[in-house]
C-alpha cells in the first residue's frame, strides 16, 4: 500500500514501515525502506551503542535517495490508476458472479 491510500499513523499505529522499492518509488531500480515514528523512537534506532539502525544501516546513499525523490513526483498519478484498475476488476468480478 501507499501512504496516499492508507495512513496507518492516522489509524493509531505507533510505528509505520514503508517499502520504497516498488509502489512509492515506482520502479525496481533500488531497494529501500523508511521507518516512521516518534522522534524519540527514530533517534533510538541511531544510538551508537545499541540502535538497530546502526547495525542495519539507516542512511540511503544520495543517488538512490535522489532517484526515489524524483519518482515520488508521479506517486499520486500511479496510485489513482491503481485504484481505478482495482475498481474495474471488482466491477468485472461482480458482473461475472451475477451471470
Total beta-strand segments: 2
Total of DSSP H or I helical runs spanning 4+ residues: 5
- What portion of residues is helical? 40-55%
- CA radius of gyration: 18 Å
N-to-C order of helices and strands: EHEHHHH
What structural class do you assign from the helix and strand content?
Answer: mainly alpha
Mean pLDDT: 85
Specify the biggest β-sheet: 2 strands, antiparallel
How does this structure look, described?
A two-stranded antiparallel ribbon has the order 1-2. By secondary structure, it is mainly α. It contains five helices and two strands; from the N terminus they run E-H-E-H-H-H-H. The protein has helices at about 20-25, 40-45, 50-55, 60-70, 75-95, and strands at about 15-20, 35. Helices cover about 50% and strands about 10% of the residues.
List the helices and strands and how they pair.
Blueprint: E1 16-19, H1 20-24, E2 33-36, H2 39-45, H3 52-56, H4 62-72, H5 75-97
Antiparallel strand pairs: 1-2
What is shown here, in short?
With 99 residues, the protein is mainly alpha-helical. Helix content is 52%, strand content 8%.
